[in-house]
Amino acid sequence: MTFTIRRYEAADAGAVADVFFRSVREVAASDYDEAQRMAWMPELRSAGQIHGWAGDGRLVLVAVDDGDRVVAFTDLEADGHVGHLFCAPEAAGRRVAARLCDAVEAAARAQGGSSGRAIPCSSARTWWCGGCGSTTTGWPRS
């Protein structure tokens, strides 16, 4: 399976909501117990909620598979902070997150800033840093 990184489009909102939900509920299960995951993501977000969030001025990038299905996403806020990085279970461990990190860091540099370099949770540390030789203070390298 190959992946392409592209900018979020309005039609992606439902798929981003699904990836977000499944990532928290399934992928994060190795790092968080059920009560924590339920508190974090009590229900599937609506496409409208996701589109509102994505349209607030941040850059949202998605990774899509060969069928143009969203399998992961990240965002770059105006201040250079990366707020989200979530992968669908079928994309976790396939270096999709590392490719998204590279793309969002390049976007931050192009905007004259730098990426937030903040890793918000245990699962993200595994995706961003696992097997890359990186630490939690920087992006992984392919």
Précis, in short:
The chain has 142 residues and is of the alpha+beta class.
Q: Can you walk me through this structure?
A:
With 142 residues, the protein is α+β, with helices and mostly antiparallel strands. The protein has a single domain, classed as Gcn5-related N-acetyltransferase (GNAT) (Aminopeptidase, 3-Layer(aba) Sandwich), CATH 3.40.630.30. It has helices at residues 13-25, 34-40, 47-54, 96-110, 122-129; strands at residues 4-7, 59-64, 70-76, 82-87. A four-stranded antiparallel beta sheet has the order 1-2-3-4, sandwiched between helices. Strand 2 and strand 3 form a beta hairpin. The two termini are 17 Å apart. The relative contact order is 0.18.
Average pLDDT across residues?
A: 82
The CATH level-2 architecture is identified as 3-Layer(aba) Sandwich
The CATH superfamily is identified as Gcn5-related N-acetyltransferase (GNAT)
User: What is the number of domains?
Assistant: 1
- How many beta strands in the DSSP annotation? 4
Order of helices and strands: EHHHEEEHH
The CATH topology turns out to be: Aminopeptidase
Biggest sheet, open or closed, and with what strands and sense? 4 strands, antiparallel
Indicate the percent of residues in helices: 25-40%
Q: State the secondary-structure class.
A: alpha+beta
Give me the number of helical elements. 5
